[in-house]
Amino acid sequence: MSQDNNGIKAKLFRWYQENQRVLPWRGSKDPYKIWLSEIIMQQTRVAQGTPYYLKFVEKYPLVTDLASADEQEVLKLWQGLGYYSRGRNLLKAAQQIVFEYKGVFPCEYNEVIKLKGIGPYTAAAIVSIAYNKPHAVLDGNVYRVLARLYAIEIPINAPQARLVFQKQADALLDKKNPGVFNEAMMELGATVCLPKNPDCPNCPVLSYCKAYKSGSQNILPRKLASRSVKTRYFHYLMIKKSGKFYIRQRLAGDIWQGLFELPLIETNEVDFLTINQINEILDTKITFLKPIQKTMHKLTHQHLEIVFYEADMATPIRDNGQILTDNKGLKQYPLPRPLELFLNDYLCKPDSIS
Q: Which active-site residues does the annotation give?
């Protein structure tokens, strides 16, 4: 087995040197930039995440710059990436580095993993790439490569899977060049050993792949059925007043925590709301109501059926959390993606706010 592992590493290194993608963070030994790239690229395609990485590095070139930022400012820069807890944790971890480590990014795995929002994979990536520490990464790409390479049948989301796959990753790790090895494994999974229709003819370690030999490369890795998806029904009101409109900040304990949105009514059914229903729920007096757009927004375990309405009212909303803003003022507030898309379209129309 060790001889096979040596062969795998040799071919993997050679392939990576010749085929690695040119990415703005690749080749950097700065743990701050490596950390930024890893957090941004979680659940995000490289093409989508790269502009965000460049914006963050430009606005916050040092971890001390990020630590002094305002949360709303960070979330606004993060807007459109989704999974907003990543942005909030990014700020909290930067503040930890400044206050607990005097602004110096820690170099030991056991210290890095204490930072907010950093788990075993991200900690291993940072210390191996930045400091050449022998810690094997285990992300979705690496799970897939290992499952096929060694024909591991355990579902990757089974309770015991991490221990099994981590043991295999540790055994294969090149301890002299762990950072390059980890990047090569992730690159292989991202560009060749794809989730569907893997590009087996161009795989550098094809001769070692047990899944390919048994014809199971399109079956592995196995995965347990995910939990059911919940559907929620959101009704957003564009309530206009003196050339402005109402927004409010979402509270903790739900999706989009800390982001801003239009006045919201959530119901248990998809039917359009009536003026009487809204007046009763909001304790106000709506005098005009018109549905103007309906859309769906899919999250990992939730599907949101969203209806946007235009509305006029005779009395103010009885809610101190509401903020009156206009198109220009809206730019300072971070918004959930479906709200951003709607408002970008709506506010571009002539006389949309009067």
A: 38
